[in-house]
Amino acid sequence: MSKMIRCAMGAAGFAAALLAGGAQALTVGDIQVKSGLGDNFRASIPVMLAAGEDVSFACIRLDESASSKYRDVPPLKGYTMKLERSGNVATVNLSTNLAVFEPVVRINLLIRCGAKVSTSREFLVTQTLQGAEKK
Fold first, then answer.
1. Own/partner pairs, 77-81, CB within 8 angstroms, 24+ separation
2. Model's pTM, two decimal places?
3. Can you give the pLDDT at residue 1?
4. How far apart are CA 24 and CA 49, in angstroms?
5. At a CB cut-off of 8 Å and minimum separation 6, what does 63 contact?
6. What residue segments make up the domains of the chain, in order of their start?
7. Domain 3-134 maps to which CATH number in 3.40.1350, 2.60.40, 1.20.120, 1.20.140?
8. DSSP label at 67?
9. What is the per-residue pLDDT across 41-58, written as a single tens digit (0 to 9) for each?
10. For residue 49, what are the contacts with CB-CB under 8 A and spacing of at least 6?
11. Closest Cα partner for 45 from 110, 98, 128, 96?
């Protein structure tokens, strides 16, 4: 292998490591459910950002993909999403205008803000009459 090709491969590996490092700095925390079965759904999900990272509303969505390993669990439907920012934490607030009577719902949070900031986390939320529990 020529020296030029080795240098190019090394540079490409270094660039990939930098991009991966940026993506790994973004951390999705645990969901905090504030409603129970038969209530309008309310929950928040903290997203911790590294210095220099930013997320916008356009970067965040819930994925209802059938490729989920929990595809038999219904996804949260009819939700409203809001994004709040405080320091290095962005909080994704989810709510519905209608009561949710599914005892278990699936929430797959996807964050894609270009090549440097990309992650996802799937939650199964079990709702009870007294409140809600996260699994």
1. 79/41, 81/57
2. 0.75
3. 44
4. 10
5. 108, 109, 110, 120
6. 3-134
7. 2.60.40
8. T
9. 999 999 998 887 888 889
10. 25, 26, 55, 88, 89, 90
11. 110
CB 26 within 8 A of CB 50: yes
Supply 15's token pair.
């660039």
- What length does the chain have? 135
Low-confidence ranges of the chain (pLDDT < 70): 1-24, 115-117, 130-135
How far is residue 5 CA from its own chain's centroid? 38
User: What is the Cα–Cα distance from 104 to 73, expressed in whole angstroms?
Assistant: 7
Taking only Cα atoms into account, the Rg of the chain, rounded to an integer number of angstroms, comes to 19
CA distance 100 to 40: 6
Residue 135 CA neighbour count, 13 Å, CB half: 11
What SS3 class is residue 115? coil
